[in-house]
Structure formats: structure tokens, C-alpha cells
Amino acid sequence: MEVLKYIFYPTVFIASLVYYMFRRRLSYWKDRGIPHDRPHFIYGNMIGIQKEKNFHELLRDYYMKYKHSKPFVGFFMMASPDAMILDLDLIKSILIKDFHNFNDRYHFFNERDDPISAHLFAVDGKRWKIMRHKLTPTYTSGKMKFMFPTIVEVGCRFNKTFMNIVENGGTIVEIKDLMARFTTDVIGTCAFGIECNSLENPDVEFRTYGRKIFTSRSPMKETFLRSFPRLARTLRMRKFPKDMAAFFTKIVRDTIDYREKNGIERNDFMNLLIELKNKDNSLTIDEIVAETFIFFVAGFDTSSAALGYCMYELAHHPEIQRNVRKEIESALEKYDGELNYEANIEMTFLDQVIKETIRKYTVFPFLTRVTEEDYKIPNSNLVIEKGVKVIIPIDALNNDPDLFPDPDKFDPSRFSADEIKKRHPMAWLPFGEGPRNCIGLRFAMMQIRIGLISILKDFEFSTCDRTETPIINNPRSFILAPFNGIFLKVERIVQ
Hints:
The protein is of the alpha+beta class. The protein is built from 19 helices and 9 strands. The chain has one domain (about 30-490): CATH 1.10.630.10. It has helices spanning about 1-25, 30, 55-65, 90-95, 125-135, 140-165, 175-190, 205-215, 220-225, 230-235, 240-260, 270-280, 285-315, 320-335, 340-345, 350-360, 395-400, 415-420, 440-455; strands at about 70-75, 80-85, 170-175, 365-370, 375, 385, 390, 460, 485-490. The strands form 3 sheets. Strands 1-2-7-4 form a 4-stranded mixed sheet. The chain has a 3-stranded antiparallel sheet with strand order 3-9-8. The longest helix is centred in the middle third of the chain and has 32 residues, at about 285-315. It is globular, with a radius of gyration of 24 Å.
């Protein structure tokens, strides 16, 4: 009994303290008179996540409920009191004008136990500024032109894959998987200098780890890591499995050793990083591993998702598909049938189609920032206190009928030059905005364009009995992903 006393009372004390701390955090917005839904003790305002709803649906419903409670509303990610920003002018201030007070994303990274998690997207403060400055020159339009032929080569193999399917009697394809294999091969060759050939063999190790990056993560774990990154580091939590880190680390080290020993240079991202490493030791090997890894993560599934959803919409809208194909044929004819960088950037209607796809199917549901100092909302008495995370619900904005009338309709004309001018610049933010926008946006758009051009010039796509309408998205996936794939009918165009 004496022993139990020494165990029982401290346990009760700790449990009571934790309960008090959680209750205090969960009353944060109530104490400040900010509108919000009453939070669940464990899930906060995330009840139903992974079951009935994915992140997109959850935040979209919350946004629509409170969209007129501007400039922001309270939201609890578990026990973390966050400010969901509803006012577009305030979003502009946070991302651009007052960026100095919101330059950190407050994402989880653990360099000690999980070094591949310490990449540009996650790191904060001075380290982010230094790394961004180092890496920015590798993502310029000039460097994209440098890598363009490498991606076109993969595009040619992509076209051949469809040709083989059709010639062997195939008519129904699962387009999402094929798009993921295309982006896997693009990122494999551009980021790691490896010919993955997942278009020929979908079970190659590189593709397997690409799938594992997302299937091994859960929305609830992601939420905990985002909400309590310091606690997660103290607990020595990892974002990615050890075998995954070992796999990508070995690939990068072996690639660098081989290239440097044999004096090999290629038109790819890895070559640019090696140049940085050898220039005044600007990058360490571990930093190169982390940056190539996030290059893979960001370019693999997000781009393949956009490609898959784009093909889904083009299959449902044959007239739009024909107009895209006419533009492709016209541009290629202008350059004697060659898909070069100039032809690629001249396809403005294709660009509108891609942007409308990204609006309707926003892969990442929100952006996050954290206040470094108390922030007084312009033209109000409201304050977002130091250390509070802000959520910018980009998917909800993209589907707000006040910003995009009839948001369920697929309408590329929304992104004509005239329509863009009419709209608030913060209404469409798939790549973020301001100094901490997505550094790889040029590469992402280039990869998506080449993927679409490579197949649309020779093949026509339409719906079939297996096409799911509307698409059911996976509630367990943090990024937008179709639960049952995207099946389409494919036919070769007879010239």
C-alpha cells in the first residue's frame, strides 16, 4: 500500500495538471470573445476527421459557417488554438506586407532523429532565410529551361506507355496511377539522377517508397506534429520511417560520389545542388538529402494528383479537351513538331485548364504561419497574440461561391487575364504568396504541362462505366486523393 501511494498520488497530480492545461487551452478563444465551435477535449474542432470527412471538407464546412465573422475565427487543431483567417486583405498583410511577423510556418522537423524532415518547407527563422537564399537560384526560369529537355525525355516514355497500352488492346486506364508513375520518373531523374522506369515497372523500389511517403502518414499524427512540434521533438518523434530516410540518404550519397568521381554533369536539380555544395561548402550532404527528398515529396504526389484530376475533368468536358489539343498542335507546328521551352510557355489555354483544376481540386487544404509578436489587426481592436498559429484555408477560398461563382463547375475561363484582374489576388493561393511562397512552383507547372502535352497530342480521353462521378476522396489522406482511383477510356487519335 505504501508503494501504491507513491505511484498513485503523483499520477493523479500529473493527470490533473494535464487536464487543467488542456481545459485552459480549449477556453482560449472563449476567453477572448472570438467566434468558434465548442472544441472536443481531444479532437478540438476536428471531429469526424479520417472517418466522415477529410481535411478539405472539414475546413471548408467550418469556413462556410463563419465566413462572415471577419476578419478571423477561432479553430482548434486538437488542443492548439489557431486563428482561421477569413479576410482576403488580412491574408495579404500576413503573407506579404507584414511577413516579418509571420515568416515561420511552425511545421514539425526533427533534425536530430529525422534529418530528412529538416528541409526548406519546414525549417524556420534565420535558418530558413539562409537556405531560401541559397536555393532560390536553382528554381529560376533559366534553370527550369535547363531541366526542360530532361523532363521531355520522360514525357516521350510516358507517351510510349500509352501507345503500348492501346496497341495491346487496352482501352480503360487508371489515370491517377499512371500520372504518379510519370511524376516518379520525372522527380527520380531530376532530383536523384536515377532512371526509375516506373512507367515500365510500377513496382520498382523508388515508386514503392513514393507511395509509402503518404500511406504511412495519418491526418491525426500530422495534426499532432503540426500542433505541438516542440513536444514532438522532445518525445523524439519522427515524421518519416527510418527505412525511408536510409533509402533516400543512400541514393543521394551514392549519386554524389559517382558523379564527382567520374566528372559527370547532367541537366537536373541534383547537379545544381552539387554545385552549391562545392561552392564555399554552401550545402552539406545532409541538407542535400533533405532538399532532394522534399523536392520528391512536393513534386511526386501533388503534381500527379493535379494531373489525374485534370484528365478527369477533360474526359467530362470533351470540348475543352479538343480546344487544349488544338492549342498543343498549333504550338508544336510552329516549332516544327518539337516540344521546346518556348512552345510550352506559349500554351495559355492549357495553363488556364491547369489552374482551374488546381482551384477545384486544391491538393493541400491550408497554409499555416505563426505570429512572432502580438499582431494588431489593421483597422480593428483585435489582436492575434504572439505564438498563435494562423490558418489560411486555401481550399475553402477556392470553393467560395462569392469568389468563384458556381464553384463546382469546371470553367477554365476563370483564369483568363481579364477574369484574374477582377479577382482579389489572395483568392487563389495553391502555391502560397509572398517571400515564403512555394519555391518549386515553376517546376511543378512545367512538369504538369509536359505530362499533359505528351499524351493529349496523340490520345483522346473520355468517361466509361468505371468512371466514378462524382469522385469520392479518401478521408484518411491529408492531401486530396481519390479513394477508388480515376478510370478513363483512352483512344489513339488517327492522324
